[in-house]
């Protein structure tokens, strides 16, 4: 019997191959992001997410212990698409002005084009104040994000003659994140009045203050 015969029998009704765990997790995370952004964190149900992904609710619990853990995993994955990630990829830029403008424009595009995600983060932040389990997840995420951003700011600032101690940039990291989140709220509340250029200028002002020697 050839390999082709074996594959054909499987396709014609033989035992189905069990999906890999990483594929199941990826499918659940993609479905969760869709559902969370469509109806919000509080309203989202795990069975709805499982159905959207094409799995049972048991598949969710075998990969994530709770809805909080599922959302925490999404938050962790989005860490890669932050100011820290943007700033870490500007080694080819040699001037302060170029670095600031490049990073500010990239972050501003995210604010304007990913409003549903930012609205979801705001909702989760509000829920964190009411639910201790959600609060623990969210605090860990924010602390990790601030520390990562402070470290990256220090690395970039050192190239322009500014201090290189990450502790020096903790406040700047907090202000930058607050600016991005605040502009996202303003943009969502009044998209006709808040332009991408205004968001860029706001973020650039904070970045320039952080990186300038």
How is this structure best described in words?
The chain is an all-alpha fold and 213 residues long. Helices cover 73% and strands 0% of the residues. It has eleven helices and no strands. The chain has helices at residues 3-12, 21-39, 46-53, 57-63, 67-78, 83-87, 96-113, 115-128, 132-158, 170-189, 196-211. α2 packs across α3 (46-53), α3 packs across α4 and α7 (96-113) packs across α10 (170-189). It is elongated. It starts with a helix and ends with a helix. Mean pLDDT is 87; it is low at 1-12.
Give a nutshell description of this structure.
By secondary structure, this protein is an all-alpha fold.
DSSP helical segment count:
11
State the total count of DSSP E strands.
0
Q: What's the multimeric state?
A: single chain
The SSE order reads HHHHHHHHHHH
Largest sheet: none
Low-confidence stretches: 1-12
Beta-strand content bin: under 5%
Shape: elongated
Percent range of helical residues: over 70%
The assigned structural class equals: mainly alpha
Rounded mean pLDDT score? 87
Distance between the termini: 72 Å
C-alpha-based Rg, rounded:
21 Å
């Amino acid at each position: 019997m050839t390999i082709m015969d074996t594959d054909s029998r499987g396709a014609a009704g033989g035992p189905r191959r069990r999906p890999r765990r990483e594929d199941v997790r990826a499918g659940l995370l993609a479905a969760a992001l869709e559902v969370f952004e469509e109806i919000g964190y509080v309203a989202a149900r795990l069975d709805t997410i499982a159905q959207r992904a094409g799995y049972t609710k048991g598949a969710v619990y075998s990969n994530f212990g709770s809805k909080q853990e599922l959302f925490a995993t999404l938050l962790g994955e989005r860490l890669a698409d932050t100011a820290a990630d943007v700033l870490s990829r500007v080694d080819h830029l040699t001037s302060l002005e170029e670095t600031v403008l490049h990073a500010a424009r990239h972050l501003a595009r995210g604010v304007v084009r990913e409003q549903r995600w930012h609205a979801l983060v705001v909702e989760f932040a509000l829920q964190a104040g009411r639910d201790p389990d959600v609060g623990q997840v969210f605090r860990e995420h924010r602390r990790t994000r601030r520390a990562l951003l402070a470290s990256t700011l220090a690395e970039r600032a050192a190239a322009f003659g500014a201090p290189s101690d990450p502790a020096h940039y903790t406040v700047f990291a907090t202000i930058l994140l607050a600016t991005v989140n605040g502009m996202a709220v303003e943009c969502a509340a009044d998209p006709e009045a808040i332009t991408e250029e205004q968001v860029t200028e706001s973020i650039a002002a904070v970045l320039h203050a952080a990186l300038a020697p």
